[in-house]
Amino acid sequence: MTASTAHPIASYFSESYTESREKFLAAADAADARLTSIKHPGQGPDGEALYMDVASVGRQDAENAVVIVAGTHGIEGFCGAGVQTALLNNPEALAGLGDVKVVMIHGHNPHGFAWLRRVNEDNVDLNRNYVDFSEPQDLNEYYLEVKDLVLPQTFGDESEAAMQAWIAENGVENYQKAVMSGQRIDSQGVFYGGTKATWSNQTMHKVLPEVLAQQKNVALMDIHTGLGPYGHGDLIHSYPADTLEYKELQNWFGEEVIAINAGEYGDVVAAVPRGPIVSSLDTILPEHRSFALVNEYGTVEFDRVIKAIRADNWLHINGDLDSEQGRAIKQEMRDSFYCVKDEWRQMIWDRAIWSFERMAEGLRNL
Ligand SMILES: [Zn+2]
User: Fold this and answer.
1) Neighbours of 161 (CB within 10 A)
2) CA 118 to ligand 1 center in whole angstroms
3) In this predicted structure, what is the pLDDT of residue 268?
4) Distance from the CA of 225 to the center of ligand 1, in angstroms?
5) Is the pLDDT of residue 128 over 50?
6) From the CA of 248, how far away is ligand 1's center (Å)?
7) Given a cut of 70, is residue 347 above it in pLDDT?
């Protein structure tokens, strides 16, 4: 069933980090949410302050919690934040989740959100950063094969042709292994996982146990964009097939859920990322029984998204943000990770609220 709202769903989505934050805070206030805002040390392109905002609604000491994360990959926060703001504005949809505390993280990576980037202030991909840094990490030296093609001196048709030639010669699968699984060998490269816990990672480790101190069971959904069919939300988790979590998520979502470690996402992405937050929720919340998954919404075709990521990486390292090319690259980033059509936004909301209902019910039936 689709919950209705007083306003069109599209009106809860925004066009800038600041607009998104303002809408989120106003909606949280109107919903009598408890709010904690943690200031980020950096600032946005117009000098605006950046925050990770944490709003919670529902019975504060409920046994179960649904956690909704927006903006792990900065710019992808436009989608997740739209869903959060729509939910806060929709008492009927919130009530439909039953007796559960709902926690919303707006701006997991506020710097990338404001700068229209996927990465954070350190050029780190947060979903390659949630690893145990006390253990030796795989640097992914294979990345060196593509390093100079990914980050050329000048970005344009020529550099793209060279990149495409490498992919044609070595195959998409090898390209994905070199690049998308993550790397810790080139801090100026793409899908860089970092060598220490980022501000966002450290903040999450503080914030989540605090806000969930009274809960026993937690289901977390991290909302992303840029992969999969237009407007469709792929529900992806990384629990191995022999785990209780795998079985539970299967019960909750049936055939709608994809286990990435079982190769079920292979036709879209051949490389399993190392270090997403959803793979380390047990470490962040060791006292809780937790379930984590990604909701990945499709935008435009995969090749276009990957090219936009390379162009944006080049722009921030070798290019000029205040140039015609710089502005074009930023527009392409936006178009690759966020769709302006009302139809897309409605699809996002319908899938999201359905997923939250499944999560809340799943927790209740544990
Ligand atoms: Zn993402």
Assistant:
1) 9
2) 7
3) 59
4) 6
5) yes
6) 24
7) yes
pLDDT at residue 270, rounded to an integer: 57
Model confidence over 73-100: pLDDT tens digits? 999 999 999 999 999 999 999 999 999 9
Both tokens of 362, joined, read: 């799943």
Q: What is the mean pLDDT of the chain?
A: 94
Q: Which domains does the chain have, with CATH numbers?
A: 9-131+191-299+340-364 (3.40.630.10), 142-187+305-332 (no CATH)
Does residue 195 sit in helix, strand or coil? Answer: coil
Burial of 324 (0-12, 13-18, 19+ CB in 10 A): exposed
- Cβ atoms of 27 and 53 closer than 8 Å: no
Q: Please give the average per-residue pLDDT across 35-46, as a whole number.
A: 98
The contacts of residue 257 (CB under 8 Å, 6+ apart) are 235, 236, 237, 249, 250, 293
Which of 20, 2, 16, 39 lies closest to 199, judged by CA?
39
Question: How far does residue 227's CA lie from ligand 1's centre (Å)?
Answer: 8
Contact by Cβ (8 Å): 63, 217: yes
pLDDT at 127 over 90: yes
Q: How far is the CA of 181 from the centre of ligand 1 (A)?
A: 13
Whether the pLDDT of residue 24 is over 90: the answer is: yes
DSSP 306-355: HHHHHHHHHHHHTS-TTSHHHHHHHHHHHHHH----HHHHHHHHHHHHHH
Ligand 1 centre and the CA of 312: distance in Å? 15
- Asked if the model's pLDDT at residue 273 lies above 60, the reply is yes
- Rounded Cα distance, 84 and 80, in Å: 6
Residue 6 predicted with pLDDT over 90: no
d(CA 102, CA 83): 13
For residue 197, is pLDDT > 50?
A: yes
Cβ contacts of 26 within 8 Å, gap of 6 or more: none
Determine the distance separating the centroid of ligand 1 and the alpha carbon of 59, expressed in angstroms: 30
Q: Residue type at 154? A: T
144 C-alpha vs ligand 1 centroid, how far in Å? 23
CA of 268 from ligand 1 middle (Å) equals 14
- Predicted TM-score of the model (pTM): 0.96
Question: How far away, in angstroms, is 299 Cα from ligand 1 center?
Answer: 12
How far apart are the CA of 61 and the centre of ligand 1, in A? 31
